[in-house]
Design a protein that fits this description.
Elements lengths: L3 H7 L25 E7 L3 H4 L3 H11 L4 E7 L3 H10 L17 E5 L6 H10 L6 H11 L5 E5 L15 E3 L6 H18 L8 H11 L5 E2 L4 E5 L5 E6 L8 E2 L27 E4 L1 E2 L9 H5 L4 E2 L2 H15 L3 E5 L9 H15 L2 E3 L7 H11 L6 E6 L3 H6 L6 H13 L4 E8 L6 H22 L7 E8 L16 H14 L5 E5 L2 H12 L4 H10 L13 H15 L6 H4 L17 E2 L4 H12 L30
Parallel strand pairs: 1-2, 1-3, 3-4, 4-5, 9-19, 10-13, 13-14, 15-16, 16-17, 17-18
Antiparallel strand pairs: 5-6, 7-8, 11-12
């Protein structure tokens, strides 16, 4: 229940519904007794966090256990944070309004690197020391209870930048792993109390519990490993300081998502969120093998839900939430093996219930256009294409297996069916890129404008094309993980070049901010020493770095310079000191080598070599490409293969 003090605070902030809880389908439990309390923390605002389906899934699964209470924690907006700090109000959960320091686990999801300072800020707002070693020391010296900080999500596949702050990283699928960790904690706490060896939350319990976690897949405990560095600042070795700690750490894998729990009583927010709709995951994984795409590698293999399961989940969610929109969740919706009959049935279901249907990431073939035409009718929103590169040569380098014929054929269909806005997504700074590839971006935009004129003549005056360009960020566990990133001046030069080339009537050009992309690369590929930079940036006031209005490049630059100077780096500017722009050696130890994603390094090397040769690799639905995943589980679970 909201107390008077919090009630007074909420009257002074924007969107107080961010902080009040009590939504439809929120779980209420008595947190007393032997309950294991988990704060599922999303390091951004309520509107963004409540749009993340992983929160709904794990919230549902954990709260099915009568001995586990999963509560939600979000980063308060700037206005709320200021008042909380002024009044000494600790960060709290939305279910009980208790401080997060009362929890057993502060479980944060790592969805994007630019949220890292928010994690430290949330811990500090909760009265919890941000550094793991400080929490352990205070527990030993003062007997203070602090929750264990655990982290999972895609960014956990390189856990090292946050290794100084997090107690336990959970790598891979969390549906089975996180509940098992909670049950093991409850058992360890019960055993410790029964033996009268330690009070719940003590350091002895912590050591016993963490040691026991080494017996299950998907658990990385940073303090169980020591890192040594070479004189050139590359990694010399990872050495276990606990004999039973795994090396490397294998990911947790849900082998059949048909059997995995999926929520139908989703929490319904009081206010609009980024994605305010019912969502059903159709399948997990991808077979296409784009060489820049981390998600396509770390979520392998493909595991599908059966069509009747998807339809049933959709009906139940709509019934229990009252949402008026349904969306399907996957990396590529129309790659679902039984997409046509499923989409046809869903359209009928949604039409009958007056529910909007959203089908993102469609392969734009004839059936998909028919689906989109029926869904959008006369009110057609923009149609999105992602060629990624401007020439066929560069699309072959990145293994984006689409041709110009695919692009222009789809555009002709779209214009013929009445679409008046085409959105194109490209990346710049890709390996082997030349200015001819940038010219190709402008050529595609110009050709689409010409196709519109050919088909519609003077009637096509309202037609427009938006070209959006992002900066390539090489990510861990991909074939391009060794590649250097463009320097800031290179990105800026390319942005300016494209700005000139895309001065075409009817074409709008957007591009991403340069320093943010460079920083994302540093945080994505950094080692443990990056943690010092993150902490220094946070201390200087950085938070909400993914928000343009709050990002402060100057403070981050100062943080890099201060840490680089203190660490004795001598190889150039502060960013260069953290290896942002160099090519990683194929045989050197990478920070994320401690994690086994089940896709082998040999496969990544082979794909990197094929990229240099401008050779493509076929979709693994057409035959195994030897990534290594089939050594751990069956690929294409519940999938009909023609």
């Amino acid at each position: 229940m909201i107390d008077r003090e919090l009630d007074a605070i909420l009257k002074r902030v924007e969107k107080p519904a961010r902080y009040i809880g009590g939504e439809v389908n929120m779980v209420r439990k008595d947190p007393a007794g032997d309950m294991v309390r988990v704060g599922f923390a999303f390091p951004d605002t309520y509107e963004i966090g409540m749009s993340y389906m992983g929160l709904q899934i794990l919230y549902h699964i954990l709260n099915q256990d009568e001995h586990i209470y999963c509560e939600r924690v979000f980063a308060p907006a700037k206005d709320m944070e200021q008042i909380m700090r002024e009044q000494g109000r600790r960060l709290f959960t939305l279910e009980t309004f208790e401080p997060i320091s009362n929890l057993d686990f502060f479980a944060v999801t790592l969805q994007y690197e630019m949220s890292y300072t928010n994690i430290l800020n949330m811990l500090d707002l909760g009265g919890i020391p941000v550094r793991r070693e400080d929490r352990v020391r205070e527990q030993q010296e003062k007997g203070v209870h602090y929750p264990l900080v655990i982290a999972g999500g895609p960014c956990a596949y390189n856990p090292e930048p946050l290794a100084d702050f997090v107690d336990v990283f959970l790598i891979g699928d969390g549906e089975e792993l996180l509940p098992e960790v909670c049950r093991m904690y409850r058992d360890a706490k019960a055993s410790a109390c029964a033996a009268d060896e330690t009070e719940a939350g003590g350091t002895e319990l912590r050591e016993v519990f963490l040691s026991s976690l080494c017996d299950i897949d998907g658990v990385y405990i940073p303090e169980f490993y020591d890192v040594a560095y070479n004189p050139d600042n590359t990694i010399k070795s990872y050495t276990k300081n606990r004999a039973h700690a795994p090396q490397p750490v294998p990911r947790a894998l849900v082998k059949d998502i048909e059997q995995a729990e999926f929520p139908v009583h989703n929490i319904v927010p009081f206010i609009d969120t980024v994605h305010d709709r019912a969502v059903v995951e159709t399948f997990r994984g991808c077979t296409r093998g784009c060489r820049f795409c981390q998600a396509g590698m770390i979520y392998r293999p493909v595991r599908e839900r059966k069509p009747e399961t998807i339809i049933g989940l959709a009906q139940e969610q709509l019934r229990n939430t009252g949402h008026d929109e349904l969306s399907l969740l996957s990396l590529s919706t129309s790659d679902y093996s039984r997409f046509e009959p499923m989409a046809t049935e869903l359209m009928g279901l949604c039409k009958k219930q007056n529910v909007a249907l959203s089908l993102p990431s469609l392969r734009l073939d004839s059936f998909s256009f028919n689906v989109l035409n029926e869904i959008q009718g006369y009110r057609k929103s923009g149609l999105t294409f992602a060629p990624e590169a401007g020439t066929q040569r560069l699309r072959d380098v990145i293994n984006k297996n689409i041709t110009e014929e695919d692009i222009y054929g789809a555009v002709r269909q779209a214009i013929g069916l009445g679409w008046e806005h085409i959105k194109l997504y490209f990346m710049i700074g890709l390996p082997t890129e030349t200015y001819e590839d940038l010219d190709g971006i402008a050529e595609i935009a110009r050709n689409i404008m010409n196709i519109n004129y050919e088909i519609r003549g003077r009637k096509g005056g309202r037609f427009r094309v938006t070209v959006s360009v992002s900066n390539f960020v090489p990510k861990p566990h991909t074939p391009f993980q060794w590649e250097p990133q463009n320097r800031p001046e290179e990105f800026i030069e390319k942005h300016n070049y494209l700005s000139g080339k895309l001065r075409i009537k009817g074409v709008t050009f957007n591009y991403h901010e340069t320093f943010t992309s460079n920083l994302e690369c540093v945080l994505a590929r950094g080692d443990r020493r990056i943690g010092r930079v993150i902490e220094e940036a946070w201390k200087s006031g950085c938070s909400f770095d993914a928000w343009t209005e709050y990002f402060d490049a100057g403070k981050w630059t100062e943080a890099f310079e201060k840490v680089a100077s203190g660490a004795g780096f001598e190889n150039g500017s502060s960013m260069e000191a953290f290896f942002n722009y160099r090519r990683f050696g194929e045989d050197e130890i990478l920070p994320w080598d401690i994690i086994d994603s089940f896709v082998t390094k040999e496969f990544f090397k082979s794909e990197a070599q094929k990229a240099v040769r401008e050779t493509t690799t076929h979709d693994c639905r057409e035959g195994c490409v030897g990534c290594g995943m089939n050594q751990h589980t069956e690929c294409f679970v519940n999938m009909e293969r023609s």
